[in-house]
Design goal:
25 strands, mainly beta, about 400 residues, about 10% helix, 4-stranded antiparallel beta sheet
Length: about 400
Amino acid sequence: MKKILLSLLSIGAVAVVAVAATGAFFSDTETSQDNTFTAGELDLQIDSECHYYQNGVDVGCFHNFPSPTPSIAFGNWPLDDLTTEKFFWFDDVKPGDYGENTISLHVFDNDAWVCMDISPLENNDKTCTNPEGVSEGGSCGIDPDAGELAENLDFFAWLDDGATNGFQCSDTEPDEGAGCGDDPQEGDNVWQNGSETALFSNVIGPASDVLDGRTYTLADSTGSVIGGPFIGSSTYYIGVAWCAGDMTLAILGQGDMTGQPNLNCNGLTMGNDTQTDSVVADLTFRAEQSRNNPDFRCVPPQRIDRTQEGFGDGGWAGWSCPAGTTAIGGGIDSSTNPVGGNGVAATGAPAVDGFNYPVYPHYTFSAGETGYVVHDLVDGLPNNITFHVDCLPN
């Protein structure tokens, strides 16, 4: 009996050892710490350098208040977000005065499309002096929309990228003052005729045209003055010159505007009808990310909808774009029955179903217009159709 018990105890001891052995495992642990997503930055900042010339002398940019209020500087500020800054704030402009601002744009720190919007002008006839009344035939008065100054202030703008196309300045470089990188004429406040690009389509124009409710595309999906998006953390310079009178391009290097050897300013064209008048506008710069935004436009197309009821068999319907715009697209939004050919029609171009624009059966566009046209199928069914045309300003 004693031997049997010893044998059982031996078996039990072995069993305990076996259980202990099966309780051990190989293991390993790896941890990836602090996984993070951080939104990128898109911050447009602007600085400005202003020059104002009287009798060919740069007198500085100051707005003169009556005593004892001191004059307040404007037009010059270091790189920053815009709050109360003014590019222009002149209160005593005379015929033959002229000036220039060099504006630099910086987008931190992602590439971006950039646009400039100018509000509709206030062209104010503020008071009526005796010389002004004589000049205007005795009919002048106080009218917020009847001033003559906007028609007598000429403006010219250019891409101040120097003798070499493109910009070499970067916000990561040390401050190099006017002109940087390998091109000393970049950002030097002077228009280099022949190497720098004029920004207005008509080159030089009065404020009543080039500054009145305009949007200028500096870079978007349709085109760019620098050949693509504004590169993050880079510097881009735009020069803007103005003349109280008539500004013209000069023979190379023979201009009469100090600091602008390629421009002339003739103050003789500005008369007494402009006395005391004022011009006021807001200038707004916009930046939109370019990455994942390939179709951005500074000026989005205007969409016009039309519903045509009782669309007969084989009939045509169309919708033309307003004057000053061009149809760039369109489409059918709804229809009670299938329709036939449709699309954008262009003046003189072959159109759908073999007809020629601008004349279609039952629908005629005025000469020079563009628009969207739809042709109904001959299926013995009446048709109501809603469609649209997208119109882009010229």
